[in-house]
Amino acid sequence: MTIEPFGARLRRAMDTRGPLCVGIDPHASLLTDWGLNDDIDGLERFTRTTVEALADRVAVLKPQSAFFERFGSRGIAVLEKAVEEARAAGALVLMDAKRGDIGSTMGAYAAAFLDPRSPLFSDAVTVSPYLGFGSLRPALDAAVVNGCGVFVLALTSNPEGAEVQRSTAANGKSLAQLMLDHMRAENEGAEPLGSVGAVVGATLGDAGVDLDINGPLLAPGIGAQGATPADLPGVFGTAVRNVVPSVSRGVLRHGPDVKGLRESAARFADEVRAAVTG
Ligand SMILES: O=c1ccn([C@@H]2O[C@H](COP(=O)(O)O)[C@@H](O)[C@H]2O)c(=O)[nH]1
After folding, report:
1. Does the domain spanning 6-277 belong to CATH 3.20.20.70?
2. Which residues of the chain fall below pLDDT 70?
3. Whose CA is nearest to atom 7 of ligand 1?
4. Where does the Orotidine 5'-phosphate decarboxylase domain start and stop, copy by copy (predicted)?
5. Ligand 1 centre and the CA of 220: distance in Å?
């Protein structure tokens, strides 16, 4: 049986559902705003409502692992169920775990998120390349074997990221550009889209790097961090057609009403469409 690569699955989802990614970030303050307790029952209801509201309509759901990890094993159980139900409803699940470690440990992260035998098996995972791009090899290889994606931090949406990511690498390029060049090499020849994506904040203004990596560009920072869909062409230029704009609190604050969540996601999707098609 041939396994369809993540890049092809993502392109199809973007074409049919639109490119929007909604993050599942159960902040304590959001649980309170939703009238829930900041406990495991609140986490479970928040997550179930979000998945029910959005998994049948957005291209990508992105659970932020940290908000589940803070509840220990019971939080992880909620996350496992969310991943399974979101995938069953047709959303691609991007696990926002931002893992980064030496290669041998990266192999264990790959087993956790990119191996179909794992209860946390997801369509894609976020990773940090700042232990060296080569340290990601086990995740990159597992992604190929299992038809998954790997989203690599390049230029993050937070202002503190620049001191590392814009610094100059040994070859004279910025560290971010060096990582993007590695991603382009991984995606060479892939059609319609490679499976190695870059994370590039929508908050950056002109990104000032070459984003032509033949892969998806996850753009967090829309909504609560101040960026809007209208900013996307200025940040991404001609690469904007490969952008997966990501919103978490900007949508989630409209819960717990399912209609409110859906309408908010639809509004962002409309704004993205208008911005991208010009
Ligand atoms: O550069 C990055 C990479 C990841 N994130 C994550 O995305 C969401 C953003 O949440 P909002 O509520 O839409 O601000 C969150 O999970 C971050 O960890 C990012 O913001 N920037």
Report:
1. yes
2. none
3. 220
4. 19-264
5. 5
